[in-house]
Design a protein that fits this description.
Distance between the termini: 29 Å
Strand content: under 5%
Radius of gyration: 12 Å
Number of strands: 0
Number of domains: 1
Helix content: 55-70%
């Protein structure tokens, strides 16, 4: 992970971070297909509900369920994996 990674999870807006994670996930065909399949959400519904906190929390739970995916997305976003976990906790409040 680059030295520019954000180490303070509380310093990041959870919705913005989750949206960035969604974009990173959808940018990877394997991850996108798996997320859509496991979540049961279809692409048109995802487009409509992309900023919904329940959908974003589900995406972050999906990433957390497979650590290599969580680490890969965190690295791509230049944040610590804990920031994604903290964002999910905030979105679920």
């Amino acid at each position: 992970m680059s030295g520019a990674a954000t180490n303070d999870p509380s310093a990041l807006d959870p919705t913005a971070l989750a949206l960035r994670a969604l974009a990173a996930t959808l940018g990877d065909q394997r991850l996108a297909e798996r997320f859509l399949s496991l979540s049961g959400i279809d692409p048109p519904d995802l487009r409509q509900r992309a900023s919904d906190s329940d959908v974003l929390a589900a995406l972050l739970r999906f990433l957390e369920a497979h650590e290599p995916d969580l680490l890969a997305v965190a690295e791509q976003l230049e944040v610590e994996p804990a920031a994604l976990v903290a964002a999910r906790h905030e979105l679920e409040r």
